[in-house]
Amino acid sequence: MTGWTRRRALAAAGAAAMLPVLAACTGGEDEAGAEGASDQGGEQAEPAPDPEEVVETRALASGYGEVELALHPLVRSGEHCVLTVDVTALSVPEGESGVTPSRFAADVSLHRSSATAEPWGALRLVDAGGAAIRLVATTADGRVVARASADPEEITVETLRLQLVYAAPEDGVETIGLLLPGWFVEALPVIEAEVPELGGEPERDVPLDELLGHVEQAPVIPLEGYARRLEGSVQTIESSEELEIRLAGDVLFDSSSYEIDGRADRVLDAAAASIGAYEGGVVTVIGHTDDVGGDADNQTLSEQRAAAVAEALSSRLDTSVYELRPEGRGESEPLVPNDSAGNRQLNRRVTLTLTAQKTTEIEVETDGQTLDFDPGPLGQGVEAPGPEGFDRAVDPEHEYRFSSPSARRVDGLLEVTVLAERIDGEGAGGYNKTVNVAAGGVFSYRGLSTGHSAKHVGFAPRLLVGATATYPLDYLLGESTTEGSLEWRIVSDPSGRDGAAVGDTLRFVALYRDIPGAETLDIEQPYVLGAVPFRFTDIPIEE
């Protein structure tokens, strides 16, 4: 089995219920382990963590109860590895026998549907520096390759031992990040040892070889980043394979013209600086128009605009290192439907795509004026200092205090967490009485190619630093059930909705590329249909 590349992800298949059994499995012992001595002075080597040892513990309020996750080391088994998690309900809602693990579900494959999340799929491994994400392995018919000591559809006061299979990290990797609902564990140990015993119901225990024989996919998918100048003229998408930059046509050109406007210098300078952060390669310069006018005229205009941008970039880039290839696509590839003046403006654009090896970080624009906060058409949005937060009543019986005390810089990433402490009310309530910090029905920077991902965007606020907005890392899951579309998912909590008992605090987490030099940031859920906007300001970044 080999890990996915971005292109292999397009051919992925799989999704459905959890595979009910996973045998206890063994890996070879480390011959240079605790019993060996170093070559220098015979010093005793540090013993590897015991696979039965709990190396990290995290508590999470969810479903009006609270659960605890006790994490064991990740154990290698050939090309695979096994994560062992002991899950226990510390409290359950009144009148219930346990906590529903809905926060732990996430899309792993698209075998059955783009709108179906797999149980426990939210537990994802993140490679160092956010280079790639590792999803739970799946079978040919889309079942998650995992076992549980009891029914995993409910978390009770009796400890549930859960074991999930992933593609193993590369040889020599000793720790890896683990993304959980509400938490990011940046350094989970990776060891060679025996997988801990499952315990629980004996019929769930099957031989390892039989279990691993069902593994069809163990996804390892490159992570991508996205940043946008707040004035809207430049948008940048970064990945391990390519850089895509969208330039707003209305900033570059006057209406129906292909002569570059004098206002465009700053936009073109920014685009050239982003491209210049890479070693070199081919830059395709593609012109796009809206649907106003005839097809032939729009095709010609798009070709003329692409040629004009390529010519302007040729004076800003070394064309012996960056080959510029202008093309025109006319109105054939809209970013969004041509059904409004605002959407037609978005479709009038020039896209630059560089295929190259990135060698240095792109510095975002940290000066400039942050846009004023938009509280939405009903004025429900709130702007407040992150550490202090604000109070909001979900309904008269469910009031929460929202805050974001700090962000954390870890391993080339920024970890951002929003807290929602329930401060008043009675009872567990229901679906419409829960906290909702999701991005709503629109997360559209990837345009029409996002398939059904708008339904599963989860927690995805943007970071505001100076004149730049940075969005959470994301990854290409595969082809959508919508013909011609692709499915992207976010490196964050798959669900932005949950409820807590009075006194408990909900947690929502997302990961972003680091912003070197930034000491504070704002985070914002802007107004979109289905989301109540908020902005937290002056959030300190901790090392």
Describe, in plain words, how this protein is organized in 3D.
- The protein is mainly beta.
- It has helices at 6-9, 208-212, 249-252, 265-275, 295-314, 341-347, and strands at 56-62, 65-71, 74-77, 80-91, 124-126, 132-134, 146-148, 160-167, 175-180, 183-192, 220-222, 224-229, 234-238, 242-248, 281-288, 322-328, 349-355, 382-385, 390-395, 398-403, 407-410, 413-425, 435-436, 462-465, 468-479, 486-490, 497-498, 505-513, 520-525, 534-542.
- Mean pLDDT is 81; it is low at 1-42.
Q: Biggest β-sheet, characterized?
A: 17 strands, mixed
Low-confidence residue ranges: 1-42
Helicity range = under 10%
The number of helical runs is 6
**Beta strand %:** 25-35%
Overall structural class, as computed from helix and strand content, comes to: mainly beta
| Mean pLDDT score | 81
Number of DSSP strands? 30
The Cα radius of gyration reads 25 Å
Q: Given the C-alpha coordinates, what overall shape results?
A: globular
- The end-to-end span amounts to 37 Å
List keywords for this structure.
543 residues; 11-stranded mixed β-sheet; 6 helices; disordered N terminus
Compact summary:
By secondary structure, this protein is mostly beta strands. Helices cover 9% and strands 35% of the residues. Residues 1-42 have low confidence and may be disordered.
Furnish the topology, listing elements before pairings:
Layout: H1 6-9, E1 56-62, E2 65-71, E3 74-77, E4 80-91, E5 124-126, E6 132-134, E7 146-148, E8 160-167, E9 175-180, E10 183-192, H2 208-212, E11 220-222, E12 224-229, E13 234-238, E14 242-248, H3 249-252, H4 265-275, E15 281-288, H5 295-314, E16 322-328, H6 341-347, E17 349-355, E18 382-385, E19 390-395, E20 398-403, E21 407-410, E22 413-425, E23 435-436, E24 462-465, E25 468-479, E26 486-490, E27 497-498, E28 505-513, E29 520-525, E30 534-542
Parallel strand pairs: 3-10, 15-16, 18-30, 21-30
Antiparallel strand pairs: 1-2, 2-4, 3-4, 4-8, 5-6, 5-9, 6-11, 7-8, 9-10, 12-13, 12-25, 13-14, 14-17, 15-17, 19-20, 20-22, 21-22, 22-28, 23-27, 24-25, 24-29, 25-26, 29-30
